[in-house]
């Protein structure tokens, strides 16, 4: 029962999670575009397995460490959709590639040369900056040069990836997909086969998943949707809540919960309380949430348990080592967060 | 050597840490006021032991879980300077009090009654709100009523605590201390002995530590000083840095580090790079720091290692499981973060 949980505790609404899982899976049924969902959001092997059972072709991740955990659990088709550099990680990646089916993103010839120096035919994708202004090569010409460098060095070139960030508009998303498709065309015109073109998040999966030339989608947040991303992802219901306890109360003015920045991210704005219109979270400090009482007639007592809707799931899950899967007020399953 | 570390890695500057440790210890030598430093900032038993060896009389902490870790390691004189509530934590605290020397803060009669129902003479402090507008009783009269409730219930009343938050001015700090001293006087006038009056942080230790009636100081951040608190704590040098690797670079414009919100808090503002005046951190995303190159003549290469000054140590340490103690570029000691 929820009453026995030590707070703060991260809850996962099983009905909402399963509805999101099925909605995404249904989109890909009968389609040539595939889903290789991102692991970085939930960092939970049990959820990755559910995504695979629902039809995903593998798992995308953000770090070498995440890829190592996935490999340890026998997850197939691992894509590290992010760059690595430096001798320590190059060596770690080469070791991982010996024991798992793993493909790495690259955007710089120095890294290709460092990988090639070890004479092991690792699998690579070229990362293309499609507008996020973060990692990735800046042009189709650069993508071609890097693909040639990979092939020339005896490594395996599998294709392209580009992450456009959270969707701003259909036009912006289509412009990002057009840049990827343009890179693909240039490579194919130059005789380089492109097996994979990976793109798209939980806000853009429909646009990206139907865009010509895109072969797979990286969307992952959908299965642990939060209220921040949820505001622009109407297809998916919020899944995460933090259970907290009222530890202090100043009559008619405020109460304090035992949940602060060490268990709940405020990096993208303050979360809201569930089912408490008469109270509003004012501030998160390290260990506390301070809640203003707007409607003093709402009964709140020291020791009461209150649920907070998780606003930024990615950085909140990262603060916990498990999520409690709940349905109708009961814990049905405990999800370890391995990542 | 630092070169062998997997990034992102949290570094602790040993020279700066030891200087801070000694500076704080020196203040308390020969004084009747004592230091019971907070554990919540560093969550590291090895650092707590150094503080005890330097003269601290015990360790203050923020959660029952931290107190449990301290008890497991045989740390004496544990003060939980925070409220708990609810059956789960009440039971956990009573179990802990059986096996460790632990004192708990309370601010509500319901919690006193819940504790008293178990007929175990636990040790309590009354928490007084001295201006932070968070936890704590609102007045000396309330403090007196709660102390009487504790004593009447057969529990052990040890005294008072009040945390004023980060120092705003000498006047604000003295006003907070005056409220605590006023509570103490009222209790003593009513025949209630007050053994402990705990207050003061790393920014206010000198004012609080010399204020009549204050018996001990909770300051803890000083030993792992960051650049945010450091700006108002001129006595202590910044201690924490995050080591990161350049994983992507767009010539002359920007580079990207493998350190984002999952390893470095941005909750109190963006951190700065160490020894790189020609570059400025623009944005932290979940896994990346995006750095603008201001001076294109500064050489930066993919694979380079760069140190970031930790701006908000409390929420950054919380993201790691160890800190690497470094001196002159070498790792001398690895500090486990147990909390």
Topology at a glance:
The structure is a homodimer of 339-residue chains.
Chain A: E1 9-13, H1 14-28, E2 34-35, H2 45-53, E3 59-61, H3 64-72, E4 78-80, H4 87-99, E5 102-106, H5 109-116, E6 123-127, H6 140-152, E7 156-162, H7 170-189, E8 196-199, H8 205-209, E9 216-217, H9 227-230, E10 240-250, E11 254-257, E12 279-284, E13 289-293, E14 305-309, H10 313-317, E15 322-327, E16 330-336
Parallel strand pairs in A: 1-15, 2-9, 3-4, 4-5, 5-6, 6-7, 7-8, 8-9
Antiparallel strand pairs in A: 1-10, 10-11, 10-14, 11-13, 12-13, 15-16
Describe the structure.
Two copies of one chain form a homodimer. The model of chain A has no long low-confidence stretch (mean pLDDT 96). In chain A, helix 6 crosses helix 7. Chain A is built from ten helices and 16 strands. With 339 residues, chain A is of the alpha/beta class. In chain A, the strands form two sheets. In chain A, strands 1, 10, 11, 12, 13, 14, 15 and 16 form an eight-stranded mixed β-sheet that branches. In chain A, 30% of the residues lie in helices and 24% in strands. Chain A is elongated. Chains A and B meet through helix 4, helix 5 and strand 10 of A and helix 4, helix 5 and strand 10 of B.
């Amino acid at each position: 029962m929820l009453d026995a949980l030590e707070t703060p505790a991260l809850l996962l609404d099983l009905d909402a999670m399963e509805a999101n899982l099925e909605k995404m899976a249904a989109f890909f049924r009968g389609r040539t575009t595939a889903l290789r969902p991102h692991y970085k959001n939930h960092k939970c092997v049990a959820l990755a397995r559910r995504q695979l059972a629902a039809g995903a072709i593998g798992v995308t991740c953000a770090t070498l460490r995440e890829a190592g955990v996935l490999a340890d659990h026998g997850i197939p088709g691992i894509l590290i959709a992010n760059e690595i550099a430096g001798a320590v990680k190059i060596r770690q990646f080469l070791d991982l590639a010996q024991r798992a089916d793993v493909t790495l993103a690259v955007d710089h010839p120095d890294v290709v040369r460092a990988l090639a120096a070890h004479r092991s035919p690792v699998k690579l994708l070229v990362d293309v900056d499609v507008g996020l202004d973060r990692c990735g090569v800046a042009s189709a010409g650069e993508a071609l040069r890097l693909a040639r460098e990979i092939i020339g060095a005896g490594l395996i070139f599998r294709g392209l990836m580009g992450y456009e960030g959270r969707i701003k508009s259909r036009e912006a998303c289509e412009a990002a997909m057009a840049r990827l498709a343009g890179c693909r065309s240039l490579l194919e015109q130059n005789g380089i086969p492109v097996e994979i073109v990976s793109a798209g998040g939980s806000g853009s999966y429909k646009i990206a998943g139907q865009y010509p030339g895109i072969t797979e989608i990286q969307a992952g947040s959908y299965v642990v949707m939060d209220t921040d991303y949820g505001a622009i992802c109407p297809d998916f219901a919020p899944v995460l809540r933090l259970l907290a306890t009222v530890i202090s109360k100043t009559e008619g003015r405020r109460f304090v919960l035992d949940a602060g920045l060490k268990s709940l991210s405020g990096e993208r704005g303050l979360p809201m309380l569930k089912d408490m219109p008469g109270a509003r979270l004012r501030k998160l400090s390290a260990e506390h949430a301070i809640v203003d009482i707007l409607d003093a007639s709402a009964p709140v007592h020291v020791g009461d348990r209150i649920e907070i809707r998780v606003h930024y799931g990615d950085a909140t899950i990262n603060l916990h080592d498990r999520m409690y899967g709940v349905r109708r007020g009961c814990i049905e399953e405990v999800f370890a967060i391995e990542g």
